[in-house]
Structures are given as C-alpha cells and as structure tokens.
Amino acid sequence: MSKNTGITRRRFLGGSAAVGAALQIVPSSYVFGGPTAPSNVITRAVIGTGGMGMGHVTKYPQTLAVCDVDKARLQRAVDKAGGDVSAYSDWREILDRDDIDTVHIPTPPHWHAQIAIAAAKAGKDIYSEKPATHTLAESRALVEAVERAGVVYQANTWGRGSGHFMRKLVASGLLGTPLAVCLNPRYCPTGFKIRQWSGRPNLQPQAVPEVLDYDMWLGPAPYKPYNAHRVHGSFRGYWDYDEGGFGDMGQHHIDPIQYALGKDDTGPVEVEAVAPWPQHPDACGLWGTIYLKYADGTTMIIESWEWGEKTTEGRPLLEGPNGKYWGGNRLEPANLLEELRHFPDPPRLQSWEHAVRTRENVHGAKPNVWQATRSADILHLASLAVRLGRKITWDPVKQNFPDDADAMRLASPPRRAPWLL
C-alpha cells in the first residue's frame, strides 16, 4: 500500500496554531465556509463502500484509502477513486496513516460508533453516516472519546437548514408554551420506510459468498448464520445492525427538530409507542405512533402511517397556545410572520470543511457529536419503547432509565470480542 510521507494539512494547521495562537438539503444562504484551493485538500479514507459509501468516495488524491469487507464493492471503490488509492479489508490499518486527515464512516450502523471511537483516539476528524450510533451506550462512549481527543465530528444528516426558520420561531416565543411537534409523512416526504425495512423472521442459513468476510461484517454484533437478507442494504431490518426504517431515516427528520426546539443538549423524559407486540427479537417490525415528552412539557408525536390509524393527519408541524406553524413560512395567525421579522436570525450554519479547517464546530450544517448523539438517542428510545411494548422513562441528564433493568439491558447489549467499547 502506498503512503504519502510529506507534510500533511493536519500537521500544517497544528503548527500554525501553535505559532499564531489560533428535513432537506441545507440552503447555501445558511452555510458558509466552503471548499478552498485544491492545493489544500482535506484528505479522507472511506470505510464502507456500499450504496451510501460510494457517494463518499471521491477522486484520488482527496480519497487516499478505501476499505470494505466485500471484495467486489472494494474494487468498485478503487476504480472510482483511481490514482494511487490504497485498498484495505481491515479498517484498523487505515488509522496508522499520517497522511489521512478525515475518516468517513458509511458502514452499517452497528459499526459507526466503534470505528468513530477508534478514529478519534487516532486523532482523525470524523464524518459519519447516520445514525450516529446504534445504542444508547455507544452514544455515551462516542461523546467521551471525541471530547477527550478534541477531534471534529459530524454526522451526515440532511441538514439543519430546514429547521432554521422554525428555530427562529421557537426562540422568539411567539407561539407560547408548551409546544407540540407533529412528524408524519406529510412533513417528512421520504417517510420512515417502516414497511420497506422490516426484517424477515426465521431466516435460513446460507453459504457465505467468497467475496465477503462475514465475520468482520458482523463485528460487534452477535453471531448469527449468514443470510443474504442480513447484509447489503436489507441489514436495516434487523435489530442487531439497525432499527428498521426509523433507524435508517429517522435522524434526518429528528435532528432538525431537536435543533429547532433548542434541545441539542437534552432529550425526552417519557417515550411511548403504539405498535404490535410482542416484537420479533431479531427482525424489526411495524409500528404506528411514537409519543415523546420533554421535561418542560414539549411533546412530539411521530407517526409512520404504516400501521394503525392516521391520527395526526391534518395537524400542523408545530403549535403552541398562541399559534400554529405548517412548514415553509406559513403561520397562523398570519400576523405572526410580520412579528417574527423583528427577532434576530439564528447563527449561520457552517460547512464540514469550515469545521475541519477552523476547529469551530458548534453551528454546523451537520450535527456535531453532542448534537448527533442526542438526536440518535431518540431513535434508540423509540425502538426500546416499541420492543418493550410499554412506556419508558429516561433521565436525559444522568442518561439512564431509573429502576428499569429491562430498558438498561437493551440500551447496552453485549458485544462480541474484541469489539468492546
């Protein structure tokens, strides 16, 4: 494998600092700090080169390394990057390279935190696919690792710019309190893909393809016999690797709402699900509605429209005692729009490149590690409520379930050695 032994952009920035003391695509008007001259390239390694991963693979020499446990997918990534790109089957070998600035992690979700924690310890900046983590325990471990290392982390959600207007509206207080949020396919055009990514119970063992290192694909997940439906896209339908369609799509829609509500540093205290029960222990199934309540009385209803009644049809996206918000800039009563003009806009959102170059990572167009884990935790809490078939109580400060051993067990499932947190 070839390695670039010249001075890196990371080393240059570090030396300069020591001497000088240093539910949508985000609208460009809300983001600043874009790419700079090609002579100052932020280099990357891409770990996981499946459907999402190939979108992260760029031409060499921006992409210096690619990694996958499927030889066929790895070869496609090598062909796309071209040049002197290096290919790996074990992502751990990448972290020793000094010429790689950032690690992109578009693997299945059960690998996201494991690789991100190791990358943080290696001093790499991290750009992870959503969801940021697969379990509540991973969220805590990931925050701790990124904080200790002081690296830049962002999760690739669809951007907080879609919540920019709503953030201003909430901060103004014009709607009053308590607030109620309603999310359903009308406000989330992609939906939550609950039916699409339902798993198949009682999968039959199949022969592992020669091109796939299945043991490495499983990683920290418990061993179960290979079946093609467990891997490559449809992995989303199994609790061991994802949380169904909500795990796949949910953070795109939840993260802008957390941002808009000003709740990036907290989460709900009660979560309840309307869903068939008992759920299958392996295969993710359908659910109808998730109810969340925050300590200040804010409530959120998330409805899939895939099971049960459509109880939220015709409701506004956001409402309070003094008005309603229907998305876009549609407010009731109409005079609220004029009143809102007198309030300050939220800070402009920064690009990933800006965060890497400046080390400023508070107002990102993509959520940082604290923001991303809080919104990912809502996915995990919702999934626990579905699987347990009852209301759960969560302490967002201590980040635990008071006197609820069953919830704590699902929040921190066993991991296969050597993949411990």
Automatic annotation (TrEMBL):
<dbReference type="InterPro" id="IPR000683">
    <property type="entry name" value="Gfo/Idh/MocA-like_OxRdtase_N"/>
</dbReference>
<keyword id="KW-0560">Oxidoreductase</keyword>
<dbReference type="InterPro" id="IPR006311">
    <property type="entry name" value="TAT_signal"/>
</dbReference>
<dbReference type="Pfam" id="PF01408">
    <property type="entry name" value="GFO_IDH_MocA"/>
</dbReference>
<dbReference type="InterPro" id="IPR050463">
    <property type="entry name" value="Gfo/Idh/MocA_oxidrdct_glycsds"/>
</dbReference>
<dbReference type="InterPro" id="IPR036291">
    <property type="entry name" value="NAD(P)-bd_dom_sf"/>
</dbReference>
<dbReference type="Pfam" id="PF19051">
    <property type="entry name" value="GFO_IDH_MocA_C2"/>
</dbReference>
<protein>
    <submittedName>
        <fullName>Dehydrogenase</fullName>
    </submittedName>
</protein>
<dbReference type="GO" id="GO:0000166">
    <property type="term" value="F:nucleotide binding"/>
</dbReference>
<feature type="domain" description="Gfo/Idh/MocA-like oxidoreductase N-terminal">
    <location>
        <begin position="45"/>
        <end position="156"/>
    </location>
</feature>
<dbReference type="GO" id="GO:0016491">
    <property type="term" value="F:oxidoreductase activity"/>
</dbReference>
<dbReference type="InterPro" id="IPR043906">
    <property type="entry name" value="Gfo/Idh/MocA_OxRdtase_bact_C"/>
</dbReference>
<feature type="domain" description="Gfo/Idh/MocA-like oxidoreductase bacterial type C-terminal">
    <location>
        <begin position="166"/>
        <end position="419"/>
    </location>
</feature>
<dbReference type="InterPro" id="IPR019546">
    <property type="entry name" value="TAT_signal_bac_arc"/>
</dbReference>
